[in-house]
From TrEMBL:
GO annotation, biological process: acyl-CoA metabolic process; fatty acid catabolic process
EC number: 3.1.2.-
Protein's UniProt name: Cytochrome C oxidase subunit II
Keywords: Hydrolase
Domain HotDog ACOT-type: 8-120
InterPro entries documented for this protein: Cytosol_ACT, HOTDOG_ACOT, HotDog_dom_sf, Thioestr_dom
Lineage: Bacteria, Pseudomonadati, Bacteroidota, Flavobacteriia, Flavobacteriales
Organism: Kaistella antarctica
Signal peptide: none
GO molecular function: long-chain fatty acyl-CoA hydrolase activity
Amino acid sequence: MNYEEKIQNSETKVFKVVFPNITNHHNTMFGGTVMEMMDEVAFMTATRFAKKSFVTVSCDRIDFKKPIPADTLIELIGRVKYVGNSSLKVNVQVFVEQMYDEVRERAVSGDFTLVAIDAYKKPVRIFPKD
Ligand SMILES: CC(C)(COP(=O)(O)OP(=O)(O)OC[C@H]1O[C@@H](n2cnc3c(N)ncnc32)[C@H](O)[C@@H]1OP(=O)(O)O)[C@@H](O)C(=O)NCCC(=O)NCCS
C-alpha cells in the first residue's frame, strides 16, 4: 500500500449523539468534551495509519466556529496531514448535523501532533529509513 492509500485508509470517522450529559448551561456542547473526542479520534487515526503506539504531544489552534447544540449529531473526521520521523500531525474536523433536517455544517477543527513511542516511552521512527 502506498503512502496516499495509507492516509486514505486511515481516515477515521466517528459519529456521536449530543445528549444533555455533554452540554453546558448554554445548551451547547462543552468545549473540553469536544477536544477530548477530537484527541481520541486523532489517536485512532494515527494508530490506524502507522500501527504504532502513540501519545499526544501537542495540539495547534482549535477553532470553534459554530456552537454545537444539544439534540444534534456530530461527526468527527481525522486525517493524517503530515508525517515526520517519530511524529505526525492529524487534522480533526467536527461537523454538526440536525437530526430531523438535511442540515450539516462544520463546527470545529484543529490539528493534533502525536509521537510514536517504544516500550521505554522513547520516540521511535514511524517508518524505517529507506
Ligand atoms: C512524546 C515524548 C515521548 C517526546 O519526547 P521528546 O524528548 O520531546 O522527543 P523529541 O524531542 O526527540 O521529539 C520527538 C518528535 O516529537 C516532536 N515534538 C516534540 N515536542 C513537540 C511539540 N510540543 N509539538 C510538536 N511536535 C513535538 C519533535 O519535533 C520530534 O518530531 P520528529 O521525530 O517527527 O522529527 C514526550 O514529550 C512525552 O512523553 N510527552 C508526554 C506525552 C503524553 O503523556 N501525552 C498525553 C497522554 S497521550
